[in-house]
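Objective 1.3, modelling of assemblies. Example input:
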Amino acid sequence: MSVLLNVENLTTCFKTDRGLVKAVDAVSYHVDEREIIGLVGESGCGKSVSQLSVMQLIPTPPGEITDGEVILEGQDLLRLEANGPEMRSIRGGKIAMIFQEPTTSLNPVLTISRQLTEALELHMHMEGDVARERAIELLRLVGIPDGERRIDNYPHQFSGGMRQRVMIAMALSCNPKMLIADEPTTAVDVSTQAQLLELLKDMVTRFDSSLVIVTHNLGVVARYAERIYVMYAGRIVESGTAKDIFSKPRHPYTIGLLACVPRLDEETGKRLVPIKGMPPNLINMPPTCAFLPRCVYRIEKCEREPWPTLSLTDGQHYAACYVDTRG
Ligand SMILES: Nc1ncnc2c1ncn2[C@@H]1O[C@H](COP(=O)(O)OP(=O)(O)O)[C@@H](O)[C@H]1O
Ligand SMILES: [Mg+2]
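Predicted structure (tokens):
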């Protein structure tokens, strides 16, 4: 499989009154063509900032991408001007993003038709009836029946789940190479969640796109992602195939996340144990492992040595930890 996106050493900081927040700290990952990956971690780990950095959507100031490369099909996006024409055409054209709260991305005063056709006109050079027909077709593809009528509705006339479907239609309207879905199902109920994830998976398969699912819920990506990156305090702490991550997690943080996910393959009634404590705030981080204060596996070495870098455990499976958690 060939690599579509290669992110190396991505580092993004925010200057705040309280100090410098290192929200994304030397993050590297890649996404193959037509691959589905999961980016998982608790709230505040830097998931959204990493993805917004890839899209060059970081508000500057206070934010700044201070290091790294974001190579999409051989081109380093970070060398493009954030608001220049090339980057604008990549956003929405080659990489599309769906956010947690569709009400923030859909314009409440414009009809669905207007918003969908605008994207088709801008990126696909479609006009008039052609764009409208394509928009109705897209609504049908994402499971909105009666598109001929619904297309003239305003966002508030749709339910939360339906608005999220419209967002998916909009994101895919330009045949992007990659779709980033940032907590796409957090604002909807559990049964809608599953339907939306199924839909996302079907849609990227149909459109030959790659998909990055960003979520705080490891359970969400279990069935959909081929590979998973686990993020903590601005860094990737473990990565591997979904099978590796679920069947033999190595980093104590991943083990902790898994302990709070209901599993179908284990006896029912097993207690779900949340990880004690909170993720650190990312200002003035100590040089030691950021998970140390919450870690039940910690050893003396962890208190002495700097935060370990990712190292290969087996196959494609990497973890950033001094402890052999298998023992
Ligand atoms: N505009 C901003 N100004 C200052 N800090 C920010 C800003 N945006 C995000 N951050 C900080 O960056 C860190 C990572 O945030 P984020 O990527 O949104 O986390 P996640 O998506 O994993 O929940 C957090 O500590 C957050 O407070
Ligand atoms: Mg987020």
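The CA atoms of residues 39 and 214 lie 5 Å apart.
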